[in-house]
């Protein structure tokens, strides 16, 4: 076949090429098994709503920054253990480096940091609080 490159008997080649020509012009759709499985049931109305909702874009991960923070925390812990093993006091050591998570959102009212969902709950409540510590 000149279209798909398959080999056929001489008497079947002409028949195949006519069918192959038609098939190559059509765009195939993706078969959705969940659509056919739910078709005709009471759940059909809910599936169409879920399919129409836009999917959230996955966030870019900042794995390198998280990895470097983790390495710093490990090194600080090893330095503390070595200092204690040599007979030193914990109070002699400087505080460990703070770990910053860039995924957190800072509250404009109390300056605390929360993840995205917790910040959405916290910020409206914090805005109305009159007595802050």
Automatic annotation (TrEMBL):
> According to its UniProt record, what is one Pfam family this protein matches?
zf-C2HC_2
InterPro entries per UniProt: Znf_C2HC_C3H (IPR049899), ZNF_C2HC_dom_1C (IPR026104)
Which residue ranges does the record annotate as region Disordered? 85-105
PROSITE patterns registered for this protein in UniProt: ZF_C2HC_C3H
Q: Which UniProt keywords apply?
A: Coiled coil, Metal-binding, Zinc, Zinc-finger
Report the superkingdom from the record: Eukaryota
Q: Does the keyword DNA damage apply?
A: no
Q: Which GO terms describe its molecular function?
A: zinc ion binding
Report the residue ranges that make up the C2HC/C3H-type domain in this protein: 1-26, 103-132
| UniProt similarity note | Belongs to the ZC2HC1 family.
This chain belongs to the protein called: C2HC/C3H-type domain-containing protein
């Amino acid at each position: 076949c000149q279209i798909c490159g398959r080999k056929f008997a001489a008497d079947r080649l002409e028949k195949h090429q006519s069918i192959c020509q038609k098939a190559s012009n059509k765009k195939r759709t993706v078969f959705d098994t969940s659509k056919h499985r739910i078709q005709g049931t009471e759940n059909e109305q809910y599936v169409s709503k879920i399919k129409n909702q836009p999917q959230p874009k996955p966030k870019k991960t900042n794995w390198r920054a998280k990895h470097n923070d983790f390495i710093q925390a490990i090194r600080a812990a090893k330095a503390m253990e070595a200092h204690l093993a040599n007979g030193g006091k914990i109070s002699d050591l400087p505080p460990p480096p703070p770990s910053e998570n860039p995924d957190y959102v800072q509250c404009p009212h109390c300056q605390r940091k929360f993840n995205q969902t917790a910040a959405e709950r916290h910020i409206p409540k914090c805005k109305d609080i009159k007595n802050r510590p």
